[in-house]
Every structure is written in C-alpha cells, then in structure tokens.
Amino acid sequence: MTYNKFVGKSVLITGGMGFIGSNLAVRLAQLGAKVTILDAMIPDYGGNEFNVVPIANQIRVNYCDIRDEMAVSYLVRGQDYIFHLAGQVCHLMSLSNPFPDIEMNITGTAVLMEACRKYNPQATVVYTGTRGQYGPSVSLPVNEEAPTNPKGIYEISNLTAEKIIKVYNDAHGIKSVLLRLSNIYGPRSQMRHSRFGVCNWFIRLAMDNQTIQVYGDGSILRDFCYVEDCVDAILRVAITPQAYGEIFNVGSDVPVSFLELVKTIISVANQGHWEFAEFSPERKAQEPGDFYSDISKIERFCGWRPNTSLEEGLAKTIAYYTAHGEYYWQSDKNGQAGLSCTPLPDPNKALSPAKS
C-alpha cells in the first residue's frame, strides 16, 4: 500500500523516541511527512536518541512530558495526524506503584485530547493500547467484541485512556482510531531489562548466550507481531476514514507457544539455552493464560495483515542488535548497562512552548 497522503503532512508522535514511536517516526520521515516528536526521555522507559539517528536532520524533537498542558497545547497546533504512544508501559511497575499509570496514561491522554479539542479539532488521532485490556480470554481468537476485564492497573489505565479518546471522538468530533497491540517485537526496543517486551528480552538473553527460563510447561500461547508490520497497521488506520471511531486488534492470528518461541529464537541466533522454571506467585497471579488476536476486523476495514514471519522478524531483529547493540545494552565503565546515544544535530533542538 502506498502512503502518499502523508507527503508534506505535519505529524506529532508522542513517545516518539521509544520503540514503536521511533520506528513510526523513521517510516513517516521517509514518506515525506513533517515529523515532530514529543518525549520526556524518562530513564528506563526506552527513549533512545540513537533510535532516530537515520532521520535526525528531518525531524524536530521536543523533550517534554505528555502531562505538560502548555507544551502539549502548543505542539498539537497545526498537526494533521497525532500518534499517541507516550505513557507508562511497565506492567510490573503498576503492581507496586499505580500512580505513574494514572498520571501518564490517564491524565496525559486527557491533556492531549483536551488540547486537540481547544486548538486542533481537525487532527486525526491514533492511540496504541494493549491486548492486556481484555484480560483473560473468554474464547480464542480474541476479537474486539470480547469483554474487557484487565488484571492490572497498567491495563486498566490503557483501557481508560482508550475510552477517553472515544468520548472525544464521539462527543467532540475528533477523528480517532483505537488500537490494541499484541506482543510487538523488533529493532529499537530497549534491551537493558525485562520489564517491557518478553520476545525482545529473550532475544537479548540468546544473544548473550544465556539461559532463557520457560515458565510452566511452555505451552501458553501468544501472538507476536513484528514492529514494521505494526507500523504499517498504524499508518493504514490513520488514512482510512471508515476506521475512525473504531477499535482494532493489531497482532497475529498465528499463535505460538512460549516454548516454540524460545526454541526459534535460539535457532535463529544460533546460541543461547533454555530451561523450564516454576511460576513465581506474582507471575502466576497475573498470568492471563492463552491469548491470540482475531485480526479480521482490521483486515476487513483497512486490508492489513502482518507480512513478516516469526523467523524473518527474529532474524531482522538479531541483525539490528548485532550491528547496534552498543546503543542498547553495552555496559558502561561503572559496570551498569548504559544508554549510549549519538547527539542530535542542531536542527533538532527542542521547541519552546508558546507563551500564553
């Protein structure tokens, strides 16, 4: 599918220095869009300046927080498309401290949508939530009509953000699309800890020739979607008018067991080991069981399907980190995994919020 509609368009990506946001920024810049990134660069959340080095001379970056009303009100003005990916994305953190989820995912989303209502109601907004909003699956595959009974504050905050945006779509006419992403993996994800993205963390362990623990008997099923396919889905819904106001799953309808995933990673990486492990009480309490997505709705509305096989996606991911691993998990002189970034050139200095 061609994306000529993005040529010359102004685009804002919240959380654009992170994993999915930076992949989206690279694609949009290559398509000829005028890209602005909003990112608070909170430590350990995955924001990495190296992620956008290939497009450093083509984008603008504003280092600010999604909760900053003045900055957000300034940045939304004049944008044709707003891709909302900023937020607290650590499920485990939400179990011990729910307030970052409430403040970033709920308050931050309300700040963004209110800014759109006041200053740019013509913008099209795309929000990326999580498959965790469903909670345990009632039947498989899981479609968008399934009940939402999330098991954690992180997932509840994502579901609340989704509902806030839907209200602005329905009540204020701000064209919005709501996505529920399932296990996205690939290049530009943080690789320093295991709190985000199980697939990428397993890749890290394999590349370090370490042992991957497979909980239970490894038979739990998930669907895994390569990040380039995910970006394609985000772009398609943004330019598909019949998608506005709708909720879509973005994942794969090819379920894979954790044991199969781990064995495939080790095979593609040609190193690493695995062993069975018992669930900890905390993991067992939060484990929702088998989950894989019904993606027939987004295929019907937008013609989207993932095109990258698991083996191909893993090979691309491993090749990326083989070439650039120093920017994602290389130990610094203090022996800690450090974030090493190439500085952005002068054209990408932060914008200043409007004085009002």
Question: Your description of this structure?
Answer:
The chain is α/β, with parallel strands linked by helices. Helices cover 36% and strands 15% of the residues. The chain has helices at 19-30, 69-75, 91-96, 99-119, 153-172, 198-207, 227-238, 258-269, 281-286, 296-302, 310-324, and strands at 10-14, 34-38, 59-62, 81-84, 124-130, 176-181, 184-185, 211-215, 221-222, 225-226, 247-250, 256-257, 273-277. The strands form four sheets. It has a seven-stranded parallel beta sheet, with helices on both faces. It has a two-stranded parallel ribbon with strand order 7-10. It has a two-stranded parallel ribbon with strand order 8-13. Helix 4 (99-119) packs parallel to helix 5 (153-172). The chain starts with 9 loop residues before the first strand and ends in a 32-residue tail after the last helix. The relative contact order is 0.15.
